[in-house]
Design goal:
Blueprint lengths: L1 E5 L7 H13 L15 H8 L5 E6 L4 H11 L3 E7 L3 H15 L4 E2 L3 H4 L7 E4 L3 H13 L3 E4 L7 H14 L3 E3 L7 H11 L6 E9 L19 H5 L25 H5 L1 H12 L6 E7 L12 E8 L3 E8 L11 E7 L2 E5 L5 E5 L4 E7 L13 H16 L8 H20 L3 E2 L11 H4 L15
Helix pairs in contact: 3-4, 3-12, 6-7, 7-13, 8-11, 11-13
Length: about 450
Amino acid sequence: MTDTNDTINAPTDPLSRRNFMSQTLAGTAALTLGGMLPGFSPKSYARILGANERVQVGMMGVNSRGLALATTFGLQPNCQIRSVSDVDTRAAEKCIATVEKIQNSKPLAQPDFRKALDDKDLDALVIAAPDHWHAPAAILASKAGKHVYLEKPCSHNPHEGELLVAVAKKYKNVIQMGNQRRSWPNVAAGVKAVLDGEIGRAYFAKGWYTNNRASIGIGKETAVPEWLNFDLWQGPAPRMAFKDNLLHYNWHWFWHWGTGESLNNGTHMLDLMRWGLNVDYPTRVTSSGGRYRYKDDWETPDTQVINVEFPNNTAMTWEGRSCNGRTVEGSSVGVVFYGEKGSLQIDAGNSHKVFDLDNKLVKEVKNDVVINARDRMNPSQALDAIHIQNFFDGIKKGTALNSDIVSGHQSTLLCQLGNIALRSGTTLNIDPTNGHIKDNRLAQQYWKRDYQRGWEPTL
């Protein structure tokens, strides 16, 4: 058995961490800049780079995951966060203070991200707002001539995903989806091993996500808090009354704004499986599940299985359990590829294992970066920086993206088709050339959503 073990121990002080990020980048061949110059601090290094060499970034949606992204972007020596946009004044203030401490300059508070897009010096918008805002905001940013780093899922529904692909083609900007595992070195090496035939022809993959989420209760209509611009928060979604159990995280479990666990966390695993099986669009999709654990306002499934078949005689399945954290194969989240000669497992972290047909461990590639897959804010900062640098290289050098919007849409679509199969209660037969549902009027009604008048995303 071979055993590779790479250790990364990041300091906690912000400026030391920015220096650490610089040194980490220097040691990673896939990254830009060539690393920190010996003897220079992050401040002096930033001055050498100059504002024109740093990617000028605006942050949209900075509560929880957005704050984590702002921290990670701010730690990059070749990045300057110019503006922070959030409908929650408390979240914006916290993020601005955090970023100022990291980069020693204060980003502009711009509550409406659309105003931030008017800044001619802004290069890119980072979008970590709720799912219903992902594609509409990315489209507005693209029209304004900005590049986009877009948290997963890239869209709320398949129609929006297709719009994003068309927008990138029309405006020729860089749009990277935030499925960061595409850039984790040992995960990418594991997928490459599958594609290279290390376990023979891989013909089936299994992915999963588990958690112990509590009930969200029955919400009550109440006055909108003074710190919240709820109209802008809803944005493209038709207007609904404010309830006290909606913000900031529970919107994930309402179809009106969210997309359920399958897109919240399943996107990562379905993306890896699609990558390793070397497939684009499926031929058939089925799904079963429901809201089983609690009786409350939660609408999306807390338990779901999605089955997907492809034209190259392969298949995948994904299991999501939001309210029972029993692990699978010893991990709360992961993927296993099954092939003619063995299997390959990727767990929550930057690692993979290879087993032969007798279930003997024949290879293990480890990494000691601490990953907490259930940390909804910032499970993997040091590794995510690699994905961000790939995004920057796409902007500055035209480097191929590890997760361009075509790939991002294809993986997101698998999850969306699973939800559509579940909600329609039907088997979906799919056109493998474009991912469209065939001859199923009931299911096709979920391809696109209704929008608040005047907020419809367009090319």
